[in-house]
Design a protein that fits this description.
The chain has about 210 residues and is α/β, with parallel strands linked by helices. About 35% of the residues lie in helices and about 25% in strands. The chain has helices spanning about 5-15, 25-40, 60-65, 80-90, 105, 130-135, 160-165, 200-205; strands at about 50, 70-75, 95-100, 115-120, 140-150, 170-175, 180-185. Strand 1, helix 3 and strand 2 (about 70-75) form a beta-alpha-beta unit. Helix 2 packs across helix 3 (about 60-65).
Amino acid sequence: MTIQWLYRALEESRARGFLGPMPVETQIEHALGFSRVWESFSATPPEQFLDLGSGGGLPGLVLFENWGVPATFVDSMVKRTNFLQEVVEWEGAPRNGHVVNGRAEQVSREPGFDGKFPLVTARSFAPPAVTAECAARFLKIDGILIVSEPPVEGKADRWNPSSLGQLGLRSEGRVREGAAFQVIRKVRATPDRFPREIGTPGKNPLF
């Protein structure tokens, strides 16, 4: 991948302290792991996707360039969404990026976001219980959540099946595409009570 705007965007993100010090090429390769996971489930790109807690733009900006489909970037920090809005308007970037500043607990309940996405991605967003609860309502039925995971296998109950079921979700397992990823599928509608009020998923996690 040699897209000038993307490299420029990620270098700028790192300069502003939004990304770690690893080479941009390494960070792009990790982000492309999300696309390979998706492609193991589907022969075509998603019709659109949402990047949860987009932060410095990974994996969202890489997937945006790779697929060219409409992309929604959600983050609660104004300085980060300001940055993302800036870079998706640069020359060379795909034209269908949408940046949203807000908390997932609220944004996911808005009509334009509730149950709309076949794919939600998350990299370093939050612990499993918080990520699952904040992502669930964004997903369409049969949509998938792909989460970047620690490289070493952890506890078997890291993604608790019973608690995922409360959200209308089911684990599809942990996979490796270079890095490790967890795949969660939405199998039925998320109950109205989820996600709970802002901050509650973290203060009182389901698992």
